[in-house]
Each structure stands twice: as structure tokens, then as C-alpha cells.
Input
Amino acid sequence: DTGVSQDPRHKITKRGQNVTFRCDPISEHNRLYWYRQTLGQGPEFLTYFQNEAQLEKSRLLSDRFSAERPKGSFSTLEIQRTEQGDSAMYLCASSLTGLDWKTQYFGPGTRLLVL
Amino acid sequence: GNSVTQMEGPVTLSEEAFLTINCTYTATGYPSLFWYVQYPGEGLQLLLKATKADDKGSNKGFEATYRKETTSFHLEKGSVQVSDSAVYFCALRRALEQGAQKLVFGQGTRLTINP
Output
């Protein structure tokens, strides 16, 4: 068990470009979450999957954002037409159902800088 | 709505000092409460948790007690080390119900321990 992994760890892009991030959860974790963390703030919830179903989306997730988890394993988060306000750390977390369902385990994050 | 308020930082202490980081919450129902720690350049790590009133979470010398009467979950450590320097986040997760799968974080408290 290698923990939650995210790729890339850093991304610099120009305003207006599209970016895609990947998250690989802990194997057998059926729940996967995306959060965004801006400088000096705590993480804010973006969206959540149980298996391949996207069950909840925050109002923070504008039309330019889309997340998928096609086979119930890894997930991608795409941001279209990036804006400078999208610059943040994007965190992925996963959890189990069952006895330890309340604990979310976080990946190292993808730091996005939009120029 | 649900919210978490943390003691404002940064907090600077000398090694072996006693640490308290205050955390209070607002929530309906009976949330689970968490402390996460973020070391420089790393992702969020679960430090400790408590799932019901009067539970005490503990790990690595840190403790926090779930106090429903004061809606608090203060983090304490009797003798801090330089290696404890990090950002600490208090978080809640709502009791299991529709849309309850997200963590709500405080703004974080940066702790620096000087030798």
C-alpha cells in the first residue's frame, strides 16, 4: 500500500490553457475526494465519488471544472480555460466504507500556478 | 452551516514547551472531529480523530478531547519538539446523512518550534 498518489506534483500553465490532474487512491478505497487549498487557507471540498459515481459537487466547482472516475479506480480533474484564480494546491483523498469509513487519506497534492 | 474556527497563528514556541491549539466548531448533529498535520512540502496527514462526545484522540504525544458542551476539540502536547513544526488543521465531518462525506477544515495554524 503506497498511499494516495497524484500527478503531476507541480503544473505551471498560461491563462486560458486546459490542465488535467490525476489521482490514484489507495487500492480498494471506493471513495475518492477532491479538495482545493489556497495559500494560507484550509482545504475546501470540491467533489466526491463513490466508486465511479460522482455523488456531490461543491458550488466551487464551476462549469470549467470536470472530474471523472471512469472505472472506479483513478480519477482525473480537468480545468478548462484556466484563470489566475485557479492557482492553488489540488488535493485528492480516498477512504473506505466499513469500520474505518470516517478517515480520509490525502495525497501530496498538485500545485497549479496559472500565469 | 458547518464551520471550524482555529486559533490564529503563527505560533512560535521553544522546544519542550506545552502546546495548545484551540479549535471550535459549529455543526448540526454529531460530527466526527479530526486534526490533520501538514509538514513542509508534504501532503495532509491524519494526526488524530474522535468520533463521539468525550472521546479522546491521541497520537505521537498529541491529544484532543471531543467536548460537545463547549463544541471544542483543542489540540495539546505536553512537550513539543523541533520536528513538530508544521501547519495543523482542525476539521469536522458531518454525521452520516445525505451529502455528509466532506471534511470542513479550519484555516490552519502554523507552528514553529525553536531549539
